[in-house]
Amino acid sequence: MARMAIVKLSRPVVLFLAIGLSVQNRLNAADDFEREPISYSATIPQNAVSRLKSDFDLKRAHFDFDPRWGYLRSLLSALNVPESSQMLVFSKTSFQRQRITPKTPRALYFNDEVYVGYCADGDVVEISAVDPALGAVFYTLDQEELDRPRIVRQADTCLLCHANSQTSGVPGFVLRSVFVDSSGYPLLGSSTFETDHTSPLKNRWGGWYVTGTLGRQRHLGNLTSAHNRNPEDVDNSAGLNVTSLAGRFNRSKYLADSSDVVALMVMEHQTRAHNFITAANFATRQVLASSKGARIPNGDFGRVQAAGEQLVKYLLFSGEAGLAEPVRGTVLPTISRPADRVINGAVRSAILISNAAYSNTRAVISYTRPLLMRCPAKSKGTSARVWAKFSREPTKVGSSHTCQRPIAGPSSRS
């Protein structure tokens, strides 16, 4: 009998192979969105970052450089992204992975239409924006002090990981929970989890710092494993109900020493919502373009209907994982009753409510223009119903969800 050769791959090689699989997924997805009517790479973006870029190029905006953080604080201010939204991830699962460890985590900041990534001593600040026609659009800002620093749009490099089955096949956002070793490398032989509001808390936030209290509820935040043998069995008691990250990293390199659990729960809902909105948007436009004004075949209509139904269910928190106890952040105020409180006045897309009257975390939603993308005026069926769900002002859904009229939308004519 022939001998079986067993080859132990190094962590960088395993990551390289994983990237190779992402490349193939990206090429498959790009077959759709690089063609008309989407034309992702060829279309000029119209989003919050592209507008700031235009203002900066025309010398209507200015960035201040800080010796500690580079352009980070000035950029956040220009984009109205609150510093209080800071979250810290220490898994080597992003563009500047060589900069990321538990001692030097990557910081993320967001509002309802922009995400900003920052690595201490990194080469660039990473920026992604939600574009009404294109979904996620990616940019970088060099961290070298210059008279005229430039915001540069990125495509292929970012889309390797941000346009595949994990993003519904469209340019979008990925939020994962992974087991990591003491250097931040993912333990790829162990379980990994995509994270949104349907995920059980016990599977969330692996590779992330988490500050806040959740009572007796368990999660994977603040955890590293010394080996890759059954990391699921590691006791994470010391990582629960952490209210300070003092001593874990050099605080002076970051805007805050927190990674607030409320911000994490807002973002994990919002990122998947953005992906589903883009998927419904693309499906509707592609079907309408292929029909060329003729009657839409049942199969194509079913594609639009499926995308729309998926979106509506998600926006209404269908399948939301239950909470046994309230969740309280350390930076953001604890919310104990249904009310439209926001993170520092900026994050409007989904604000979590900890309410003892409920068995899970409820949300007050304000779906505004950046979150609810355009639905073509001629679409019917589910796409029209998707719009109708959010076109009344205000529309109460259940006991704790409120939807406001988006700023812009399709004509009422069919």
Structure description:
There is one protein chain. The chain is α+β, with helices and mostly antiparallel strands. Helices cover 25% and strands 13% of the residues. It contains seven helices and twelve strands. The chain has helices at residues 11-33, 48-57, 72-78, 156-162, 261-291, 298-315, 382-389, and strands at residues 87-89, 106-110, 114-119, 124-131, 135-142, 151-154, 176-178, 192-194, 351-353, 362-364, 395-397, 401-403. A six-stranded antiparallel β-sheet has the order 1-2-3-4-5-6, with helices on both faces. A hairpin with a 3-residue loop joins strand 11 and strand 12. The chain is globular, with a radius of gyration of 22 Å.
Q: Which radius of gyration do the C-alpha atoms yield?
A: 22 Å
- N- to C-terminal separation? 69 Å
Shape: globular
Q: Give the overall average pLDDT.
A: 76
Strand content: 5-15%
**Total strands:** 12
Order of helices and strands: HHHEEEEEEHEEHHEEHEE
Classification by helices and strands: alpha+beta
Largest sheet geometry: 6 strands, antiparallel
Tell me the helix content: 25-40%
Largest sheet, order of strands side by side? 1-2-3-4-5-6
The stretches of 5 or more residues where confidence is low (pLDDT under 50) are: 1-10, 12-24, 334-414
Counting DSSP H or I runs of 4 or more residues, the number of helices is 7
